[in-house]
Write a structure and sequence with these properties.
mainly alpha, 3 strands
Length: about 100
């Protein structure tokens, strides 16, 4: 997802106004804010996996495991961000593609 500067600035203002917690190092995976009584930041888990694979040289399996253990599984209070798979099949393909390549070698 690519943000226009005005949209990004507005999102960041809403997150700050609502005292939302953010996932360190994953701004490129931030996709929005929930509506309602307790707004929280929303992250696309697929973009987070891609970031870890591209920037930290992790395998997709390692990235998913890292996120599940260290990020998604961490409850830090009522303002804990929400993590969604906007394209669930793509998340599953990360695992399938890596598994197919790793068995070739």
């Amino acid at each position: 997802m690519t943000w226009q500067k005005e949209g990004w600035d507005r999102l960041m203002m809403l997150l700050e106004d609502n005292e939302c917690l953010l996932a360190d190092g994953f701004n490129q995976s931030l996709v929005g804010i929930t509506q309602g009584v307790n707004p929280v930041a929303i992250y696309d888990i697929n973009l987070m996996v891609n970031h870890l694979v591209d920037q930290h040289e992790m395998t997709p399996d390692d990235a998913i495991e890292h996120l599940e253990f260290n990020v998604v599984g961490a409850y830090v209070g009522e303002k804990t961000p929400m993590y969604v798979a906007l394209d669930f099949e793509r998340l599953q393909d990360h695992v399938k593609d890596y598994s197919a390549h790793s068995s070739d070698g």
